[in-house]
Design goal:
heterodimer, A: alpha+beta, Heat Shock Protein 90, five-stranded mixed sheet, two-stranded antiparallel sheet, 12 helices, B: alpha+beta, Sulfite Oxidase, Chain A, domain 2, five-stranded antiparallel sheet, about 25% helix
Chain lengths: ~450, ~160
């Protein structure tokens, strides 16, 4: 972090320093420009030249035969030039050039020989002659100072220009460095973000893979366990039939054959379920959705269940409430029959022998639902929450044959068709299993 | 004796005042009424008087100038032209566009800080620009138009 801060510090500082220098140079340039503008109006060489010219003009008028009025005018003009030299900016220029002393008092001296006051022309002439000499002696100094001032200003101007240029170049270099650092940092951040995303992806892939493999392991355990019981039943039946070395009586053969067939049917059902689950897992099932009357489907499924009920159960408890209208759903009949079979067999297996099971169909605008209500013990909230998880078995059902896959499969199959399977406690006790499917067009 | 001196001064004053008033301060030539107009001090006094304080390029502070507007002066002489060639007592000559006088309140100043301008300073007439009211006037191109000791204007 300190290294990073240090990396920003020096270009940032350089930018600030350069901007400061640039500001300084700009300020001084403005001041100098104003100075040059002001000094341009001073124009001392011209003013001093004019003063000299007026002195010479007065001398010329005095040496000739000029009338007093003309001499007076020339005198006034010379006086006005000397007045000008003593005023503000001009006086300061002469002071800076070290000329204020030799040139001071020239105006007062001239006023003392004012022709208006009756000064004789000879006296005035002598005064003017000496004045001309004084002015001539200092003219070159005025010019030299003027030029020197100009040259010094040009030097400063050049210096300021170079300073400003250096500041601009410095600021540009620092700015480029800063941008390079920022771009580099942005790149690193981007790369780090990508790396993190990738590692998150990998982690979640790994978790899913672990879950899947754990599921498969449990599935295999369960399957083996579930296979064991019917196999043991078959084995025991075969053993009984072949015991004693003599042919078994026909009624015993018939009884054991029935037991064996039922065990085989359970084995077939188990393998069918396992197969279906496996195909679901690999997305190998594509539902063929058509409009079907759910009532006909339910009737057929109930008839099937009645033909081959789970062991020790009485399928006559199942009652389909008779409604007059057909309930057309858009579904795959095979998959829907599987779901209904599952839910009905569950209801038969997990409720007391004599309790009724009511099947009811309902049609709404968007969905067709089939509700299977039982009068059994129902499910605890915890069981309800986990009922659709794989291999979740209800509490206290260890002796009831089941794979823990039935509800999972039912919900999967319903969702595959755009519907769903839900469980809810029934008012007055028992469980309410609902399968809902999208309504068909014909409805 | 004292009486005589007083009387003499009075006579001089009575004689001098109109003489001073009739003194020709400016001569306008060129595109003016009849080609030549002499402007006396009395003519200037008859025009509307204006004044303001402004800095100058040749002195410190902001002296107050009073006099008449150049555009009024030119109107009085019936001047019609693009520019005037101003001439000073020392034959300094400078061309000034007449548009200046309409764009700015340029004065033909006769007094500075209440004191009449004389030939010994920058008088009797000094062309003064309102330098502080318009930033563009604080520039050598305009400072050169401040013709002092103005005696003649040639309108072209």
């Amino acid at each position: 972090m300190t290294g990073l801060r240090a990396r920003y510090l020096w270009p940032g500082g350089l930018v600030l320093v350069c901007l400061g220098l640039l500001g300084l140079a700009a300020g001084q340039l403005v001041a100098l420009e104003r100075q040059i503008r002001v000094s341009a109006t001073e124009n001392m060489i011209w003013i001093f030249g004019q003063t000299q010219a007026e002195a010479l003009n007065l001398a010329l008028a005095l040496s000739g035969d000029a009338d007093p009025q003309a001499i007076q005018t020339r005198f006034d003009l010379l006086l006005s030039r000397l007045t000008l030299l003593e005023q503000g900016p001009q006086r300061r220029f002469l002071e800076a050039a070290g000329l204020s002393e030799p040139l001071s008092g020239l105006r007062a001296d001239l006023l003392r020989v004012d022709p208006l006051a009756g000064t004789p022309p000879e006296v005035l002439q002598a005064h003017v002659t000496s004045l001309i000499a004084t002015l001539r002696g200092n003219a070159s100094l005025v010019m030299a100072h003027d030029w020197q001032t100009q040259a010094a200003r040009l030097d400063r101007l050049g210096h300021l220009h170079r300073l400003a240029l250096a500041a601009v170049i410095g600021a540009a270099i620092a700015g480029l460095t800063l941008s390079a650092i920022l771009i580099d940092r942005e790149k690193r951040l981007m790369r780090a973000r990508l790396d993190r995303l990738r590692s998150d992806q990998l982690a979640s892939d790994l978790t899913r893979e672990r879950e899947q493999s754990e599921n498969h392991r449990q599935f295999a355990d369960l399957l083996a366990h579930q296979l064991r019981t019917p196999l043991a039943v078959i084995d025991s039946a075969m053993h009984r039939l072949t015991r004693g070395g003599k042919p078994a009586p026909p009624d015993l053969v018939a009884e054991k054959a029935a037991v064996t067939r039922e065990a085989v049917a359970r084995l077939v059902h188990l393998t069918d379920t396992a197969l279906l689950m496996s195909r679901l897992d690999s997305d190998a099932i594509t539902p063929r959705l058509r409009d079907h009357d759910l009532r006909e489907l339910a009737d057929a499924v109930i008839a099937d269940v009645r033909r081959a009920p789970p062991r020790d159960s009485d399928p006559s408890r199942i009652a389909l409430s008779q409604a007059l209208t057909p309930a057309i759903a858009r579904c795959d009949p095979t998959l829907t029959a599987e779901i209904l079979t599952n839910l009905l067999r569950n209801a038969l297996l997990y409720t007391p022998p004599a309790s009724p099971i009511e099947v009811e169909l309902k049609q709404t605008i968007s969905h067709v639902t089939c509700r299977i209500a039982d009068h059994g013990p129902g499910m605890t909230p915890g069981c309800l929450a986990r009922a659709f998880d794989r291999f979740a078995r209800g509490e206290g059902h260890g002796n009831v044959p089941g794979s823990g896959l039935g509800l999972t499969l039912a919900r999967h199959l319903a969702r595959l068709q755009g519907g769903d399977v839900t469980l809810a406690p029934r008012a007055g006790g028992g469980l309410l299993a609902t399968i809902s499917l999208p309504a068909g067009d014909a409805s | 004796m004292r009486h005589t001196v007083l009387r003499l001064i009075m006579i001089l004053a009575i004689w001098a005042a109109p003489a001073r008033a009739q003194e020709v301060l400016l001569t306008l030539t060129g595109a003016v009424t009849d080609g030549r107009v002499d402007i006396t001090r009395a003519d200037l006094a008859a025009l509307p008087q204006h004044g303001y304080a402004t800095s100058t390029s040749v002195s410190d502070g902001r002296p107050r100038f009073d006099g008449v507007l150049m555009r009024d002066l030119l109107a009085l002489a019936g001047a019609k032209g693009e520019r005037v060639r101003a001439r000073a007592l020392n034959d300094y000559v400078f061309d000034i566009p007449i548009s200046d006088f309409h764009r700015y309140d340029v004065l033909a100043a006769l007094t500075m800080n209440g004191t009449p301008l004389t030939a010994r300073d920058k008088g009797p007439v000094w062309i003064v620009y309102p330098r502080d009211d318009h930033p563009e006037l604080a520039d050598i191109r305009y400072d050169m138009r401040w013709v002092w000791q103005l005696v003649a204007l040639h309108v072209e």
